Amino acid sequence: MIKLLIGEWQRLELQQALGLKDDDHFRIAYLLPAIQAGLVQMKFPDKPRSSKQRYRLTPAGQQWLKQHADG
Fold first, then answer.
1. Residue 56: beta bridge partners?
2. Cross-strand partners of 57
3. What is the pLDDT of residue 71?
4. Which helix (H) or strand (E) segment is 25 a member of?
5. What is the pLDDT of residues 19-71, one digit of tens each?
6. d(CA 28, CA 69)
7. What is the DSSP letter of 9?
8. What does the alpha-carbon distance between residue 21 and residue 64 come to, in Å, rounded to a whole number?
């Protein structure tokens, strides 16, 4: 998921890009761990259920992406 996150994405866009159909599984297995690890952030953290919510890499996520660019 981190390698896909160039720019800002909606949750559904990310989920579909990964070929995942189950919303809960995507959120629990991919999105929340990435947020908790500090690699991904919400555009509107005070409104997690906003229809305009987008996700983007944090500086730490961008650094991780640079370190893992080859694989």
1. 41
2. 40
3. 59
4. helix 23-26
5. 999 999 999 999 999 999 999 999 999 998 999 999 999 999 999 989 988 75
6. 25
7. B
8. 26
Mean pLDDT to the nearest integer, 2-17: 90
DSSP class of residue 12 equals H
Cα–Cα distance, 41 to 56 (Å, whole number): 6
Token pair of 42, please? 């919400």
* 26, 15 contact by CB (below 8 A): yes
Buried b (16+ CB within 10 A) or exposed e, 27-63: eeebbeebbeeebbbbeeeeeeeeeeebbebbeebee
pTM, entire model: 0.87
Length of the chain: 71
